[in-house]
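batch job 7 of whatever, protein = Glutathione synthetase
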Amino acid sequence: MRIAFFVNSIEGEAPYYTTTWLALAALARGHEVCYVTPGDFVLRPDDSMLIRATTLDGAKPKKPETLLGALKSKQAKISTIELGEVDVLFLRNDPSEDADSRPWAVYVGTNFGRLAAARGIIVLNDPEGLALAQNKLYFQGFPELVRPTTLISRSIEEIRAFIDSHSRGVVLKPLQGSGGKNVFKIGSKDEVNLNQIFEVASGGGYLIAQDFLPDAVAGDIRLFLMNGRPLERDGVYAAFRRIPAKGDVRSNIHASGRPEAATITPEVLAIAEKLRPKLVEDGMFLVGLDIVGDKVLEVNVFTPGGFPEIAAIVGVDFSDEVITALENKLHLQELYRGRVPNRTLATL
């Protein structure tokens, strides 16, 4: 099996990225991997589709640093190949990273992913589903019961009124964004710097204002779902708690949050079950839920991370389960001779 990992850039990949660990797991199971970036697709006049793939020459690396070092060095082999030479196109980019500097790249994964799926390549997560999730409006499609009270607007008057109606304060963040960038806790509508915060946070468009959840002080739980169900091995779940730095409302690891062990209770599993029908319908193969108390703050469908942190805490690398699932999907595709739609196959 050959897996193509679609990422923002090879230079930007890091050893602690989940994508890196997935690539290593694939290599360890005897598969081939290549990396593809937004500028690497070709659609020729005869409707044939190709990719400019970066692969490795020589021995298969076994460590994250070795893998990325090889990809970024002269050991890397760059060649243009027919898309049909790839079995799985794994979309692991973060569109929000390109929104400001390379707006042309934001929709490349979903647009070319659709074309690849139409040509019989397994594309995960399903590009049609991902197209619906290009920003946090997607979150509003899940049951109200599991979502914090939310306002989406660019009007500072609307936001002030929302803040005034929530005595616990609100969290303000961009509709399009990730990694905890431009996320603010607002205590009241009389916040001295509210106008400045509004200008910074709204630079990319619409804003989300959410009722502040007191439980967030203790951090959130990142729980992975695969094929719509919690990812686990022998009763150990692919999950960890993200603890925010002192004085910070953000628990993102990239924003100085720290990982700790998480207890996955029946209540947490019940929350995940409430999200399952839509995730399955939309072909969301691998998803990261951010849970605080009885609410879900985020549904991460593009490039959820955390496998290295989980492995360090619980001693289980769940990358192997993911690659095994890809093997099974390829088997099902061959068994049904391509008659199962990509969105359906994505969560089987």
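notes: The longest strand covers residues 49-56.
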